[in-house]
Amino acid sequence: MATKVIENERTAMAQHMTRQPDGPGKRIGKKGEISGIGKVAPGGAKLFRERLPQIQAEAAYWETRVGTVHDFRVTLIDDDTRILFTIVFDGDFKPYVADILNEAAPWLDQIFLGVWDGFKGTNDRKSVEELLSFAFECDLFFVRNPDVTVRDVAKMQRLSGAVAELFDAAT
Amino acid sequence: MADTTTLTTHVPTLEVSDIQATVLRPRPSPYLGQYVILRIDDAAQGREMLRRMIPHVAPADEWWVPSLAGWLGIAFTFEGLKALELPQASLDSFPIEFKQGMAARAAILHDVGGNAPANWEYPFGTTDAHIALAIYAQNEQDLQRVLELARRTHHDLAQISVVYRMPFGELPEGRNPFGFKDGLHNPQIEGSAPAAHGGSDAPIKAGEFVMGYPDQLGETAQAPIPAELRQNGTFVALRKFHMDVAAFRRYLREQASSSEEEELLAAKMVGRWRSGAPLVLAPDRDDPALGADAKGNNDFSYADDRKGLKCPFSAHVRRVNPRDALKDDIVDVDSHRFIRRGTNYGPPLPEGVLEDDGAERGGVFLLIGAHQRQQFEFVQSQWVADGNFISHGTEQDPLIGNNEGDGVFTIPKVPVRRRLHGLPRFVAVRGGEYCFMPGLRALRWLAGLGEDAEQTASH
């Protein structure tokens, strides 16, 4: 049974937690999270490790195109018998699933096809739904700067670079 | 989980004689008409009404033929299909947003605060809205004829009641209440000639808008079941908006120092001048000739306006139909299009008036598509009610966003962008429903449900 929070100077900074409007996943401000655990297919662990260098090298390309993912982790756990993914992202999750599947299919298939037991590929929408039905929300969630999105960070970086340039020119 | 799709690659011809005219054909201009919402308290009477109604439902191939006095479209809410006693397996096979209804999707659609379903007009968002009729005509006499035909379908059926009736009509020069030329653009649907609008955008696969045909992914809908029900059917997101024209004019007056600047700000918010001329093609001043050119006023892209200096990223038309503006993003713009059938209601606010006269005025939109979650719901939640997709944080659509006096609107400019603050809610949601708009054969199937059940039971 949940115990009551004892108010003190530390709880004064507690963040306002909400949930995704359309499925599992905690949310603080603009940032949301979701995770999933599946079984590793026979031979999947070996396949995953063979593909990993290429998947890793292409990660920045694909996730930059998606444009809303803060971090994404995939790892084999329990002696390579299970696979875990976790994502922290901006905004709503479900509306973008179809677009991400359409556009990042080759990369996602490299990660999950033949590795996640039962997954038949991103072009099999039923299989994708099944994979997503394993998604769950975390128990504890913290994000720093909950209202700052990936795009906001990129914009602030550009701005801060431009301001620095301006100051440099002025001195 | 039901398999909802199969893959097909051929390009079929649309069965325009079976698809309702409202789906494929633009309303006439000038137009007037009425929306009517009915409640069914007895399934047999509901089906009897449907049997009588079907001969008057306009198919897309009989589009304003001289023999038709007007044009009647019919659609059903999930509550309506339940009231007609659609078999449970069929009810279960409908998409989640349709089953839940638009009011239940308020958090997703950002219908909160003043736009929350608690503030909607009856019967929107209640279990009393079952069947929606959209009746269009070219003049009052014709409209009365069609309304009378509709009335006769249920006048002797005590368990059918009219729970809502709303007249609408065209405003002078085909403008919307804010004074902008209306209904300028819709997607081109592959195989649905004649082209409804001009423009250079590539046709979109019919399956995005009508079930029974391949969509952009080459998939053909496999739900709802049975096939007889879904073939040539689609979904309609019906939205009724109130437009606060006086507030819009006052805001422009406050932010601008001349009437020319007011017009420019208004155009920056919309993405088009009042004539319909797009900012991308006419960035500095209105071009009424271009506005009147149905092909020319849609023949543009954002390729030459990557910084939004002509048309702001946040402008209404650039948000709801970004064309090629998001081509570097992962989003597949063509899968987020819908057909828009807009009508206006209420009198125009006289020119120059800055105080609200208390009159109800606004628009009712039928947003039509086979995948509402990807279409209306995506556009509303991601592109209208948020700004992250254009790196604008929580900035909403300046015209139809759910701003509560704290809205902002960014206008890119050199050397420094201009940002307007304190935007109020110019457009308020008065109600909405998700409806299923079946093909004509499917309407007959629905009307025959009871007979089928009796036949099945007697065998």
Write up what this structure looks like.
The complex is a heterodimer of chains A (171) and B (459). Chain A is α+β, with helices and mostly antiparallel strands and 171 residues long. Chain A has one domain. Helices cover 42% and strands 20% of the residues of chain A. Chain A contains four helices and six strands, in the order βββαββααβα. In chain A, strands 1, 2, 3, 4, 5 and 6 form a six-stranded antiparallel sheet that branches. In chain A, α1 packs antiparallel against α2. The mean pLDDT of chain A is 93. By secondary structure, chain B is an alpha+beta fold. Chain B has two domains: 257 residues, no CATH class; 191 residues, no CATH class. Chain B has 15 helices and twelve strands. A four-stranded antiparallel sheet of chain B has the order 3-4-2-5. A four-stranded antiparallel sheet of chain B has the order 8-9-7-12. In chain B, strands 1-6 form a two-stranded antiparallel ribbon. In chain B, a hairpin with a 6-residue loop joins β10 and β11. In chain B, α2 runs antiparallel to α14 and α9 crosses α10. The radius of gyration of chain B is 22 Å and the shape is globular. The two termini of chain B are 31 Å apart. The N terminus and C terminus of chain B are likely disordered. The interface between A and B is medium-sized, with 30 and 25 residues.
Q: Major beta sheet of chain B, specifics?
A: 4 strands, antiparallel
Strand proportion of chain A: 15-25%
| Multimerization status | heterodimer
Number of domains of chain B: 2
Order of helices and strands of chain B: EHEHEHHHHEHEEHEHHHHEEHEEEHH
Poorly predicted parts of chain A = none
Tell me how many strands of chain B there are.
Answer: 12
The class by helix and strand makeup of chain A works out as alpha+beta
Approximately how much beta-strand content do the residues of chain B carry?
15-25%
Gyration radius of chain A, to the nearest Å? Answer: 19 Å
Output the structural class of chain B: alpha+beta
**CA(first)-CA(last) distance of chain A:** 62 Å
Radius of gyration of chain B, whole Å:
22 Å
Query: Using CB atoms under 8 Å apart, which protein chain pair has the greatest interface?
Result: A-B, 30 and 25 residues
State the domain count of chain A: 1
SSE sequence of chain A, one letter per element? EEEHEEHHEH
Shape of chain B: globular
Largest sheet of chain A: 6 strands, antiparallel
Number of helices of chain B: 15
Q: Give the overall pLDDT of chain B as a whole number.
A: 91
